[in-house]
Amino acid sequence: MPGHLYDTYAPPAIDFERGEGAVLFDKDGKRYLDFIAGIAVNALGHAHPKLVDALKSQADKLWHLSNMFKNPGGEELAAAYCDATFADRVFFTNSGTEAIECAIKTARRHHFDNGAPERIKIIGFEGAFHGRSYGAINAAGNPNYLEGFGPSLPGFVRIPFDDFDALDKALDETTAAVILEPVQGEGGVRSWPDASLKRVRDMTRERGALLIYDEVQCGAGRTGRLFAHQWVDGAEPDIMAVAKGVGGGFPLGACLATEEVAGAMVMGTHGSTYGGNALAMAVGSALWSEISKPEFLEHVRDVSNHLVQGLHGIKDAHPDAVVDVRGKGLLLGMKMNIPNKGVRDAARDRGLLIGMAGDNVVRLAPPLIIEQSHVTEALATLEEAIAETSAKAPA
Predict the structure, then answer these.
(1) CATH homologous superfamily of domain 16-34+295-392?
(2) Looking at the whole model, is its pTM more than 0.85?
(3) 1 pLDDT higher than 60
(4) Scanning 34, 60, 179, 216, which has its CA 20 to 30 A from the CA of 130?
């Protein structure tokens, strides 16, 4: 009998009942090691006591006011973001897609407000994923996501990844902004080289265009810095979209911008009924207080090094199955010569949850609180899954 939900997802026949840290349990009590974390969302794992306490405490006081009124905790969390980044202003959203929409509007409105209404073009890169709204799918330009939804919107250009000849040609007097993910997620877990990120920053500044970073997936401490671009000196953006991990599992996103750029977004130019609500601010603040600790980020870097070394060991042991290891921090991928879906399914059957990405990549984005024991378990299971899938693959 068909259900009543849209058939836009194909979940496996597993009913998860509860989670604890880096593990999930289904209704039959089977344990799963979670190395996808709600697609890089559950930064502190499942049912983290500090997040649970923050949510319960706030739920007893205020849930929702709308932005007709000040939401408790909003100014404090915005100040924390700005103190730790390039930004001076924050607009809170419920998701990454909404943060991207705000970023695009902010970029175009900035130029309009400064006497250049012709600057509407948004330049993106192949392999990008910026969300599922109409504006976001046009910003990414993936034909698979655009098909069937009418004509492409004007003002969006897609060029090859890390191609500076193409960027040089595309950057002109009609360009509002360049948008990119410092580490691509859906597109194959590709990390921009440090020198390239700095070069994009320099080129946009020279041509009068803004730079937007989509750190929805690679932000919130996932690479071992609070935000991925902070690994590169002098590569700060003008606008940044964040979400996923910043809420630790509670719907929360944000668009961050400099004072100069955000100044054009005056009353009436943008809004959100739920964005920055009291519950989200409480959980987001509790999450931030954990991931912003230097020792927490050091832990991410340490455990990532162990995981990366192990993945390279698997690659060396299975050179016919694994092409390369990609990504940064705890947003990692393995490009496969065998079906990535087969590896994912075989791992799940063994109690390890991983994801897939474009370019036939297996994606790993575990909670940031994983320990060495989790890494050891995941690597052993992943290697078994690769061996099984290799044995089934056509010769």
Answers:
(1) Aspartate Aminotransferase, domain 1 (3.90.1150.10)
(2) yes
(3) no
(4) 34
